[in-house]
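Page 42, continued from yesterday. The earlier attempt failed because a stray header line got pasted into the input along with the sequence. Redoing it now with the clean sequence only.
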Amino acid sequence: MDTYISEVSKRLSNNLRMLMVQDRVMKVTELSKKSGVSVAAISRMRNDYLGKSHYTLDTLAKLAKALEVDVADLLKNDLFQSK
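This time it went through. Structure tokens are written below.
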């Protein structure tokens, strides 16, 4: 189970970084203001290359809404491979 959660956390990190620069560069501070998620939490999430961080569904929902995507998009394995 921990391995699966770690992989999902890594995907979240990668997808969050990619979504923040997809159409235009969105700074962490801007995403924080739009989502209500702290700058520190977003920074930890973006830099979680080892998949060690865990976040609530509420946090993911706030980020997804601010990025105008579904929560599932934040966690997809192939979000940017198929585009």
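Notes: Residues 2-19 form the longest helix (18 residues).
Reminder to self: strip header lines before submitting.
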